Amino acid sequence: MPALLQAEGLACGVDEAGRGPLAGPVVAAAVILDPRRPIADLDDSKKLGAARRLRLADEIRSQALAWAVAEASVDEIDRLNILQASLLAMQRAVSGLIDRYGVLPAQILVDGAHCPGFAVPAQAVIGGDGRIGQIAAASILAKTVRDAGMQALHAAHPQYGFDRHKGYPTPAHLRALLAYGPCPAHRRSFAPVARLLPP
């Protein structure tokens, strides 16, 4: 596979993980890669196995110029809707990156069709996590952090199998929802959960 493109200048890649699940927060990451320390094999996190994602996440944390991860909670998802909560998590990730490192990127590249407001020029890039290294790195950090959070939720609520499906609406998850009802980690605004709530 050819190497992903690296955006010119001090570009920050931004991506989120967890828009589709029925449970857990949506997590976003912002990453500025170091051109002097390239990271091989970056790709859309969904195309990578779990072990490879974790290895790359460690490399990103140790070799990137700057990185940050943030989230929007289940309550915020239910209050704002999942798109607006995702954009909020992205804004928080970029703010965290600036606060932590004191670095203001020259441009921000966001995976997908929607771009939140930032203080610097920003561009939405459809399929960016498979095309641009900075966005791929952000997708890997967001995915690994969210997966770890879902493992923690599994420890608190093992009956739902969060360790396996990470909150996505798999048949096993839907069966568990029917059997046990929603837990506090479930997104009550999502139809499969809302249908099980008392009127």
Radius of gyration: 17 Å
| CATH H-tier superfamily | Ribonuclease H-like superfamily/Ribonuclease H
Domain tally? 1
- Strand tally, please? 5
SSE string, helices as H and strands as E: EEHEHHEEHHHH
Silhouette: globular
Largest sheet: number of strands, sense, barrel closure: 5 strands, mixed
The side-by-side strand order for the widest beta sheet comes to 3-2-1-4-5
Tell me the distance between the termini. Answer: 52 Å
Low-confidence stretches: 1-7
Q: What is the average per-residue confidence, as pLDDT, rounded to a whole number?
A: 92
Name the CATH class. Alpha Beta
Description of the molecule:
The protein has about 200 residues and is of the alpha/beta class. The chain has one domain: Nucleotidyltransferase, domain 5 (2-Layer Sandwich). Helices cover about 40% and strands about 15% of the residues. The protein is built from 7 helices and 5 strands. The protein has helices at about 50-65, 75-80, 80-100, 135-155, 160-165, 170-180, 190-195; strands at about 10-15, 25-30, 65-70, 105-110, 120-125. A 5-stranded mixed β-sheet has the order 3-2-1-4-5. Strand 1 and strand 2 (about 25-30) form a beta hairpin. Helix 1 (about 50-65) crosses helix 4 (about 135-155) and helix 2 crosses helix 3 (about 80-100). The longest helix is centred in the last third of the chain and has 24 residues, at about 135-155. The termini are far apart.
